[in-house]
Amino acid sequence: MSVAKNRPPNPQQQQYETIHDAYEVHYYDASSMAYRHRFIYGPLVAGLDLTDASLADLACGSGHNSLAMRSYFPTITTTGYDISPSACRDYETRTGGNAHQIDLTVPYKAEQTHDAALVIGGLHHCVADLDATFRNVAQMVRPGGYFLMMEPNDDFILSVIRRVWYRRDRWFEADTEEALKHDEIASRAAPYFTPVRVEYFGGPAFYLILNSLIMRIPLKAKPFLRPFLFPLERIYNLLPGRKPYAAFLAVWRRNEVDV
Fold first, then answer.
1. At residue 11, does pLDDT exceed 60?
2. Is the domain defined by 2-254 classed in CATH 3.40.50.150?
3. Which UniProt keywords apply (predicted)?
4. Are 190 and 253 in contact (CB under 8 A)?
């Protein structure tokens, strides 16, 4: 595991170290992984061929997203990047791949260039300096490569309530995380990336299954809720527009420019 030197302290690192164990249990149990495959991973990689690709797993956590990508593309090579030393250690143990402890909001000289980068719910933790983050990610992805993401949607009709929630709930570090508007971040990233597609999603199962930790849903209840909530989620995701949805998926293409 490599560690970035001389990094200024970031509240997100302390926050994740604090919630690491609870986060692991709730966000990667069988029901949450089933949700991820049905509503996040599958739609995100649809139409993409990442056979033999090198993937940067950003905000990698303990490696579940990388293992999921390997299930879709068995010959893919994954490398983890995370601000948390605990996450990096767990990533290497779980995946057998390398992990690098870095703060994406701090200028970083990439040691490796990848065919694609993936971030699942990690970009909204980088709002302290999104411009630096996009520049760092652009260094990691070769021109013509892909940047895949899933993030909370700030165009959501209930975003005002969510912002208040972020301020009051101990599971959030409100000063350094917030939901994102896809079009706004795409504009900021325009020197480096061009959007290919964006999809909005996220209804009852997004909160009660995937986000059971913050909703205080007992783990034992999730297998019983899942058979009812997944069909409802599929129907909910047919609603038009972006305002009904808690999150978005996006695929961007790396521009043919030097960084």
1. no
2. yes
3. Methyltransferase, Transferase
4. no
Nearest to 84 by CA among 143, 12, 21, 133: 12
Q: Give the tens place of pLDDT for each residue, 130-143.
A: 999 999 999 999 99
**CA atoms in the 13 A half-sphere facing the CB of 53:** 24
Contact partners, residue 44, CB within 8 Å, separation at least 6 = 148, 150, 249, 251
Nearest to 228 by CA among 62, 31, 26, 43: 31
Phi-psi region of 63 (alpha: psi -120 to 50; beta: other; left: phi over 0): left
SS3 104: coil
**Spatial separation of the C-alpha atoms in residues 49 and 158, rounded to whole Å:** 35
Give DSSP secondary structure letters for the chain: -EE-SSPPP-HHHHHHHHHHHHHHHHHSSHHHHHHIIIIIIHHHHTT---TT-EEEEET-TTSHHHHHHHHH-TT-EEEEEES-HHHHHHHHHHHSS-EEE--TTS----S--EEEEEEES-GGG-GGGHHHHHHHHHHHEEEEEEEEEEEEBTTSTTHHHHHHHHHH-TT--GGG---B-HHHHHHHTTTTEEEEEEEEE--HHIIIIITHHHHT--GGGHHHHHHHHHHHHHHHTTSSSSTT-SEEEEEEEE-S---
Predicted local confidence at residue 259, as pLDDT: 83
